[in-house]
């Protein structure tokens, strides 16, 4: 439990606590950073003098005890306890209050308001919603076991479906609750691999992802998967709401080593930081997870967990004598005192007050034969220290309780003490924001509850209807209530009726708050595109779907063989630790047999051979040490040379048979991608080649192209996101001969592969055969049609669909771009005709073209994108808004560019051939003979586009403008004037070199030469002298 004895460290980022103060004090407290805990004392002016005397006794015991009720912790222990959730949140005394301020919700509200104001002010054109499809949600659950968590998610899903959401459930394992989701009409997907869950899912199909329970965290956990989906591009900005119901996972971390804890905390901090919102059902759960608070923790109160556990308890112990199993007599009247889950110094005083209020009942429960009292008081709490128990025992004895009447029971997994109680008293006066879970559990067990009239309790408990309330300022009212509720050693009939009403009321307590809270949170975090239907408001949902949990759906679902939540969490954490140890333990030099196994002769022989090889290697090293090594410069050069050769060999190795096959084939299909999460959707065959928009997320050990290194513009995140796949088009077109040597070029989006709509082997063979045989000539082959797109369920015409996915302003943007491109006047309002003749169009960049035609298309696209950029850059870059989107959007005009290839292909008189991705059959759409007098051939002809391109190149080369200009940065700047000037420069350079060579020869001929002084003549050999010399000898 969370202790309130010590304040939290000031480094905790976001969640803030405040005491319950007056409005003026509340305003002052908002100015204080981080956690602000203030005391709001409750005045008790009507207490009698006897109670005041009793206070003095309590204070004396509290002052002279060896230690405080919650022992002081050293800084070393504090960090560990903070991890386990036992760190305090301030020195709260008797009657103090505590308040959690959800900073994230305030920030979301502020962002929504700023977004609405900025959108209205920044955009000069009105955006429009077409609302063609429902928003889709992904709900990730750990398993399909029938439990309280499953019941909660089912109840929320029922309300979300009524709001207008489409829901798809993902689970790690199947279970009995599968039939519940099927009955609701919700499709369930079981992850195919537990080692890499979510790797083959296109999360862009979902407006948001709801992850339920800590056990579902492997969906984006770095502990279990190597390439995690939701922590990597391009999925890292999809809203993720993580619902956590249990604290046992954090508590179990204490049993492992500190190294494991450190790594777990670091990994889980990344997971918690990734989530848009981490939702807890109670405020007490915020304390155990405070070490992982990244500023996104919020509380949405309400859960069926207490009611589910109560039903399980009653079914398990039905017909059993609980009191006898605990050592009580059947006629004993057991009063259980429960309290806040927080621990604070005022608890001792509160328990003392409750014992004082129960003292008049002792006489009523005296046994007739003996002085033995049939009333037993059980103080039920989370962490009682030995000194605290001694203090309460001393107070009980001072108040007149005999030994054994007052017991202290620590809350555990076995709730027999609470289940066998005749009456439950909530003995905490701490003002909290959420209804106490332990009190709700007692009500679900059918116990009569008596509680102080705190604000949160008074909100759900009606006095003498489903429970008893007493004024917190007058403790004597508790005594009076108990005397009225107890008659002849038993609960009165009226009290029993109140307990029965409380049981039925608590079964669906706070269900409406929980369901409404999730619906409101989704509305805040989701940015709905213009083509998505906006969901219904909370007020429009029928009350019957929100006021109760969907118990009837689980009426016939079996629960046999299921572990409880704590056991599953413990097992889950154990599996995490084992996987972490396996992945972080260094591999040993040798592999040994099992501990209970025996060595055989073959193992010994292999061991001897290994030792001999090691000895030979050591001898060779000694021999090398004796050889001269040269200077350090020579060693450095040799090492650099070896590394260079190694890199060259590695690159040659990577250019495997796929590249050799690609060189001889007529077509190469490029797959643009951004981020590691897209890798599972990319192909590995020689027909395909990846092109990464960023060097950071490029695939390893492949020959993928780094688009950012070819086109520096893509190093700018703004243009990388705004251009999308067009960045890959521009990067490939720039000096294309250096990377692409095939006659045809194609592209395929990774999202097409994610939707299982990529080319099959038959379709690939059919496409290559059509290209080789030149069946259709200069054509555009495409295999993902616009009528297959889920955004076009109503089969709209081309420009209407473009408007639908671009906030109703597609036509306006294209007209404005054409004005800038072709230098048209402001009165030009015509669009290229795209007829609605029953045929389809290409979308999602899945098409193939001859390489020269591709370069022509890129030439047109560069000018079109430059015109769009001049229109939208200032507003979009400054505020994040553009009139092609209803909210802030990094991919401002990428949706419009998806359709641009159709406009160019249609009006440049190219044939449009649809290729069925399954069978490979081909069909021509928008036949050429039907396009007469409909095409803008002069506007899209090569000569027109080439002339415009040369004019821009001349302008960029001779007189570049002083304003920001995108066109030169999107590719090669080359015009006829540039070509002529380069020819002249090359010719003049050639003439200069020729002239210098001629001058050098002339200088060599004309240079002065020194005349020889004389000629050396070798003397003749004198044979006579030689003979005389020999004779003399």
UniProtKB/TrEMBL annotation:
<feature type="domain" description="Glycosyl transferase family 1">
    <location>
        <begin position="353"/>
        <end position="490"/>
    </location>
</feature>
<protein>
    <recommendedName>
        <fullName>Glycosyl transferase family 1 domain-containing protein</fullName>
    </recommendedName>
</protein>
<dbReference type="InterPro" id="IPR001296">
    <property type="entry name" value="Glyco_trans_1"/>
</dbReference>
<dbReference type="GO" id="GO:0016757">
    <property type="term" value="F:glycosyltransferase activity"/>
</dbReference>
<keyword id="KW-0808">Transferase</keyword>
<feature type="region of interest" description="Disordered">
    <location>
        <begin position="986"/>
        <end position="1033"/>
    </location>
</feature>
<keyword id="KW-0328">Glycosyltransferase</keyword>
<feature type="region of interest" description="Disordered">
    <location>
        <begin position="1"/>
        <end position="25"/>
    </location>
</feature>
<feature type="compositionally biased region" description="Basic residues">
    <location>
        <begin position="1003"/>
        <end position="1012"/>
    </location>
</feature>
<feature type="compositionally biased region" description="Basic and acidic residues">
    <location>
        <begin position="986"/>
        <end position="1002"/>
    </location>
</feature>
<dbReference type="Pfam" id="PF00534">
    <property type="entry name" value="Glycos_transf_1"/>
</dbReference>
């Amino acid at each position: 439990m969370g202790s309130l004895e010590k304040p939290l460290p000031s480094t905790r980022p976001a969640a803030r606590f405040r005491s319950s103060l007056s409005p003026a004090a509340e305003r002052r407290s908002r100015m204080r950073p981080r956690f602000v805990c203030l005391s709001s004392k409750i005045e008790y002016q009507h207490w009698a003098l006897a109670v005041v005397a009793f206070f003095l006794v309590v204070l004396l015991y509290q002052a002279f005890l060896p230690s405080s009720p919650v022992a002081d912790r050293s800084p070393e222990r504090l960090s560990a306890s903070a991890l386990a959730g036992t760190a305090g949140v301030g020195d709260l005394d008797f009657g103090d209050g505590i308040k959690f301020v959800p900073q994230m919700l305030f920030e979301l509200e502020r962002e929504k308001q700023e977004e609405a104001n900025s959108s209205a002010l920044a955009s000069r054109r009105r955006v429009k919603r077409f609302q063609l499809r429902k928003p889709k949600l992904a709900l990730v659950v750990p398993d399909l076991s029938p439990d309280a968590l499953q019941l909660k998610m089912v109840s929320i899903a029922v309300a979300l479906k009524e709001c207008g959401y489409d829901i798809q459930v993902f689970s790690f394992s199947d279970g009995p609750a599968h039939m519940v989701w099927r009955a609701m009409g919700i499709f369930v997907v079981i992850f195919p691999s537990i080692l890499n869950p979510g790797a083959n899912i296109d999360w862009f199909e979902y407006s948001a992802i709801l992850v339920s329970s800590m056990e579902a965290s492997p969906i984006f956990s770095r502990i279990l998967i190597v390439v995690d989906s939701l922590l990597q591009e391009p999925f890292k900005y999809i809203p993720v709401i993580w619902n956590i119901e249990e604290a046992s996972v954090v508590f179990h971390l204490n049993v492992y080593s500190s190294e494991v804890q450190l790594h777990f905390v670091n990994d889980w901090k990344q997971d918690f930081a990734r989530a848009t919102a981490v939702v807890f059902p109670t405020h007490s759960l915020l304390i155990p997870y405070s070490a992982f608070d990244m500023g996104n923790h919020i509380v949405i109160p309400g859960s069926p967990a207490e009611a589910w556990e109560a039903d399980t308890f009653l079914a398990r112990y039905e017909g059993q004598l609980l009191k006898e199993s605990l050592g009580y007599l059947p006629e004993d009247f057991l009063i259980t005192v429960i309290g806040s889950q927080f621990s604070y110094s005022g608890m001792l005083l509160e328990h003392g007050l409750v014992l004082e209020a129960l003292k008049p009942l002792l006489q009523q429960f005296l046994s007739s034969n003996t002085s033995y009292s049939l009333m037993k008081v059980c103080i039920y709490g989370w962490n009682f220290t030995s000194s605290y128990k001694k203090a309460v025992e001393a107070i009980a004895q001072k108040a007149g309780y005999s030994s054994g009447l007052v017991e202290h029971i620590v809350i555990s997994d076995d709730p027999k003490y609470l289940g066998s109680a005749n009456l439950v008293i909530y003995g905490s006066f701490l003002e909290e924001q959420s209804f106490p879970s332990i009190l709700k559990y007692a009500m679900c067990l059918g116990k009569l509850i008596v509680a102080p009239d705190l604000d949160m309790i008074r909100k759900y408990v009606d006095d003498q209807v489903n429970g008893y309330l007493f004024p917190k300022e007058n403790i004597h009212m508790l005594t009076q209530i108990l005397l009225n509720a107890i008659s002849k050693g038993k609960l009165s009939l009226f009290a029993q009726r109140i307990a029965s009403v409380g049981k039925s009321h608590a079964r669906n307590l706070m269900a409406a708050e929980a369901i409404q809270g999730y619906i409101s949170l989704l509305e805040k975090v989701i940015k709905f595109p213009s083509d998505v239907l906006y969901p219904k408001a909370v007020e429009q949902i029928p009350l019957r779907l929100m006021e109760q949990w969907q118990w009837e759906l689980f009426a016939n679902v079996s629960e046999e063989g299921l572990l409880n939540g704590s056991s599953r969490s413990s097992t889950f954490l154990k599996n995490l630790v084992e996987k972490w140890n396996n992945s972080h333990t260094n591999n040993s030099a040798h592999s040994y047999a099992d501990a209970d196994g025996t060595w055989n002769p073959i193992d010994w022989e292999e061991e001897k051979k290994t030792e001999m090889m090691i000895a030979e290697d050591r001898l060779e090293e000694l021999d090398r040490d004796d050889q001269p090594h040269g200077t350090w410069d020579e060693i450095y050069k040799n090492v650099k040379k070896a590394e260079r050769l190694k890199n060259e060999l590695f690159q040659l190795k990577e250019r495997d048979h796929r590249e050799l096959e690609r060189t001889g084939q007529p077509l190469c299909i490029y797959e643009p991608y951004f981020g590691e999460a897209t890798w599972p959707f990319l192909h590995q065959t020689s027909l395909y080649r990846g092109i990464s928009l960023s060097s950071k997320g490029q695939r390893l050990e492949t020959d993928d192209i780094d688009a950012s290194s070819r086109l520096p513009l893509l190093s700018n995140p703004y243009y990388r996101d705004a251009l999308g796949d067009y960045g890959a088009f521009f990067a490939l077109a720039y000096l294309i001969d250096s990377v692409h040597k095939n006659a045809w070029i194609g592209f395929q989006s990774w999202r097409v592969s994610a939707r299982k709509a990529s080319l099959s082997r038959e379709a690939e063979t059919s496409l290559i055969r059509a290209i080789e045989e030149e069946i259709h000539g200069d054509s555009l082959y495409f295999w993902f049609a616009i009528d297959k797109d889920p955004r076009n369920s109503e089969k709209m015409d081309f420009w209407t669909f473009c408007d639908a996915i671009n906030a109703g302003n597609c036509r306006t943007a294209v007209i404005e771009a054409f004005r800038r491109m072709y230098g048209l006047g402001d009165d030009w309002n015509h669009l290229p005709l795209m007829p609605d003749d029953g045929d389809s169009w290409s979308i999602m960049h899945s098409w193939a073209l001859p390489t020269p035609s591709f370069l022509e298309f890129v030439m047109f696209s560069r000018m079109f994108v430059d015109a769009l950029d001049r229109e939208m850059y200032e507003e979009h870059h400054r505020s994040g808004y553009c009139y092609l989107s209803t909210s802030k959007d990094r991919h401002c005009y990428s949706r419009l560019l998806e359709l641009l290839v159709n406009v160019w292909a249609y009006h440049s008189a190219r044939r449009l051939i649809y290729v069925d991705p399954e069978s490979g059959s081909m069909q021509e759409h928008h036949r050429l003979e039907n396009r007469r007098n409909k095409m803008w051939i002069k506007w899209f002809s090569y000569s027109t586009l080439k002339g415009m391109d040369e004019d821009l190149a001349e302008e960029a080369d001779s007189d570049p403008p002083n304003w920001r200009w995108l066109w030169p940065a999107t590719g090669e700047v080359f015009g006829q004037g540039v070509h002529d000037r380069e020819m002249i420069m090359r010719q003049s350079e050639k003439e200069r070199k020729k002239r210098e060579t001629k001058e050098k020869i002339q200088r060599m001929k004309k240079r002065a030469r020194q005349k020889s002084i004389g000629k050396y003549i070798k003397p003749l050999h004198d044979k006579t002298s030689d003979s005389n010399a020999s004779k003399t000898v």
